[in-house]
Design a protein that fits this description.
single chain, mainly alpha, 76% helix
């Protein structure tokens, strides 16, 4: 097996393990790829393999999504929830299209920034996790539209690699009144249009530079991300309900600090 194929599989597993926990999957993949000498055309690999993680969460939530869609024509709460997810997706869609070139050519190419954002995000996550505010919302279906839009605005911070899409949306949910479980679950639902939109737009933008070797690496990363994400999605909600997010905050600080030391050493 070629070295790049092995690295693609490693990065795919890393994507699946980190996509839905608040540690920044893109940050981890960019740093791991940097230190392993992996380079993808147009940085498309790092975005396109997210479809594997997305397929995993769609599989886990398929029955619930189908029920919501069946209920929507006659149930006002189901319609409001669909509207809430789409409204939360809108800011990232606009910012992602407008800033796509800058994100891919500047932010994705700055490992020092990724490491610093991992550390800062870890500090924020620890602070939010230790807050004693009493949650107002315990079910994602009850999130009001202004709250969903606010979470969507906060999600835009995740355009900076190392911030974490799930981390931004979970912190946003917690600050706006959600409990720990529902904040994570809304992040799952919001991931569906966000990741699908990012995949489709990035594939369109890079359609002319993806050769057979790049597509092979993407398929390997996709498969690895799918299977590793399945395990995380099934485990995460129960874990955060009982233990909160401190573990992920400390991991971010550790990983970011280790990356800074490695970069300072010239690796």
């Amino acid at each position: 097996m070629e070295p790049n194929t092995i690295v693609a599989a490693i990065l795919g597993v890393l994507e699946g393990l980190t996509e839905f926990i608040p540690v920044s999957s893109t940050g981890h993949i960019l740093l791991a790829g940097h230190f392993l000498g992996f380079d993808s055309p147009g940085r498309s690999f790092e975005v396109l393999i997210q479809l594997g993680a997305l397929m995993a969460i769609l599989g886990v939530y398929a029955a619930r999504i189908a029920q919501i869609l069946r209920d929507a024509p006659r149930d006002a709460q189901a319609r409001r929830f669909v509207a809430a997810v789409l409204l939360a997706f809108l800011p990232a869609a606009v910012v992602g299209v407008m800033a796509h070139g800058f994100i891919k050519t500047v932010l994705f190419e700055t490992p020092m920034l990724v490491a610093v954002m991992l550390i800062l995000g870890g500090i924020v996550l620890l602070w939010v996790d230790r807050r004693t505010a009493v949650p107002v919302y315990h079910r994602v279906e009850d999130f009001p539209l202004p709250m969903a839009f606010g979470i969507g605005l906060i999600q835009c911070l995740a355009m900076i690699p190392g911030v974490s899409r799930s981390g931004a949306t979970i912190v946003g949910g917690l600050l706006l009144g959600a409990d720990k479980r529902s904040a994570a679950e809304f992040s799952f639902f919001l991931a569906m249009p966000t990741m699908l939109g990012a995949f489709a737009y990035d594939l369109y933008q890079n359609r002319g530079i993806l050769d057979a070797a790049a597509l092979n690496q993407i398929l390997i990363g996709f498969a690895a991300a799918f299977f590793s994400a399945l395990a995380v999605v099934r485990w995460l909600l129960d874990y955060v309900s009982k233990h909160g997010y401190a573990l992920f905050g400390w991991w971010r600080i550790f990983a970011g600090s280790l990356a800074l030391l490695a970069l300072a050493a010239g690796w």
